Amino acid sequence: MRGVRVDPRLLRHARATFPYLAGCVLLGLAIACCAIAQARLLAHAIATVTVPVALGVVLAARPVLAWAQDTLAARTSAKVRSALRTALVQAALRDPARVSSAEMATLVTRGVDALDPYFARYLPQLALATIVPLAVTTALLTADPTTAVIVLITIPLIPLFGALIGSHAAARTTSQWRTLELLAGHFADVVAGLATLKVFGRAHAQAAHITRITAAHRRATLRTLRLAFCSALVLELAATLLVALVAVSVGLRLLSGTLSFETALFVLILAPEAYLPLRLAGTHFHTAQEGLAAADRILATLDAIPAVPAPRLAPDDTTTPPDPSRNGPAPRRLAAGHTAQPVPAATVGGVGLDGVVAGYGGRAVVGPVSMEVVPGEVTAVTGPSGCGKSTLLAVLLGFAVPMAGRLVIGGIEVAGPDERFWTAWRRTVAWVPQRPTFRTGTVAGNIALAVPDAPAAAVRDAAKTTGVTEWTDLDAPLAAGGGGLSAGQRQRVAMARAVLRCHLLDIRLLLLDEPTAHLDVAAELDLCAAIGELLPGRTALVVTHRQTPLALADHIVHLPATARETVPA
């Protein structure tokens, strides 16, 4: 029945919380025993006009046990949601292109939080719905077998009604969640392109579209709420009628003298306890429906982005890769005019690619490429847009796994997504991407992202070297995403980060992706002069379309659309 739904994939993520779930079950059994004892003692107190001390103890113990169960359930929910949120963030970092940022943000925030009613309310109540009716029916069987038979026959009607309504509610809630995802994705796209929409006068049209999607989500939410209220009404009505059936049977036998007054009271007090957990389970099922709809998308995302297995290291192994520019003989250079041929694995201290093919989502973007990054020298990579220059840098940084060929770093052939190796390797690199990341803060704070707790003087020197101080104050506020900066200014800030890393951490390898893009001629000359001062004693791989950075190169790797060749500078 779909009204009682336990997703085994969610339970796999809840393995660490099984002790809490077991505690909830045990507390549920204790609550059931308290309900039986309370009914027995209350019936005896009314029949004999006495108030036993045990009744006060049971009345006090039952809410305490319920509080303890709620606390354990809340801890279970918090741990599972934390594990799911961590898994989603790690999956997004492994494959950012698989899921849109807007959808991922919705899943990590609203989606994961919507699972709280499922773990904190529905699962514990499901355990009670199994334990309490069995315990109550057993107690009724010892006191009045006729009532026990009536309860056994009628109690399955509650989950049956819940399943009939629940199947319809699940479809409605899934539709509601899809509308929410559509709204979040479209809103994020509109905000990202708001400047363009304003320029072309299309902002009002998009606002109207968002209004329509919002109205559709509101209507879907109200339909789901109406269904939940109707479900609660049906379950309450069914439970009331079933308890009334028990009461009629007990009343007739009490009048005929075949049932004692104390037993009749005990049965009438205890019978509703058999139906109550099932009614509450149906209610909590509806509150958990949004979380279950989100869980389907969360688990589908996690299944689509497999986890990276941790590498197995020998006891004396180290995750710190060799410095590519300090040790070992320099690799050979190709003679002038020779086309790049497959080369053997790079010699110790070098970085080599031998027939490397790389891409994303199973689609090759670049390759096969065979080249060497010579220690202590500058290698420039050129080629038309779309030929895979940035993808080549992604391979050297471990962000893209080669689909074919060999990648050798410092004499070590790197095979597979060895995340520990790549994490250590990136610590030895200064990287300037095409699209640098910025956080809300100051210009100085964003430069210092390259070296946390960097001295203010070092940050200032790096900014001065790259010309950042020529157009802004280092204490000037900066919005997330670099809002307020031109593309060229963002590149200068990113280059200042690389300079800061090289000076403070003695970085010996620079990977620069279009470092002078979006700069005018004068600014490009100034920045190239700063890069030239940084290069002596260091290895560099520069991706560029511009001619000025090529003057810094010792040799050039050209990646045209049809052939890849290496020629001397």
Polypeptide structure, described:
- The chain has 569 residues and is α/β, with parallel strands linked by helices.
- It folds into two domains: 8-166 and 221-303, ABC transporter transmembrane region fold (Up-down Bundle), CATH 1.20.1560; 351-568, Rossmann fold.
- Helices cover 59% and strands 11% of the residues.
- The strands form three sheets. A six-stranded mixed sheet has the order 6-9-10-3-11-12, sandwiched between helices.
- The chain starts with 7 loop residues before the first helix and ends with a strand.
- Residues 308-349 and 562-569 have low confidence and may be disordered.
CATH class category label of the largest domain: Mainly Alpha
Order of helices and strands: HHHHHHHHHHHEEEHEEHEEHHEHEHEEE
Q: How many strand elements?
A: 12
As for the CATH topology of the largest domain, it is ABC transporter transmembrane region fold
Any idea what the radius of gyration is?
34 Å
Q: What proportion strand? A: 5-15%
**CATH superfamily grouping of the largest domain:** ABC transporter type 1, transmembrane domain
**Which ranges are low-confidence, i.e. pLDDT below 50, for 5 or more consecutive residues?**
308-349, 562-569
Helix count, DSSP H or I runs of 4 or more residues? 17
Q: Characterize the overall form.
A: elongated
Oligomer: single chain
For the record, the CATH architecture of the largest domain stands as Up-down Bundle
| Domain tally | 2
User: What class, by secondary structure content?
Assistant: alpha/beta
Average residue-wise pLDDT: 74
The percentage helix is 55-70%
The major β-sheet equals: 6 strands, mixed
N-to-C CA distance: 72 Å
Order of strands in the sheet with the most strands?
A: 6-9-10-3-11-12
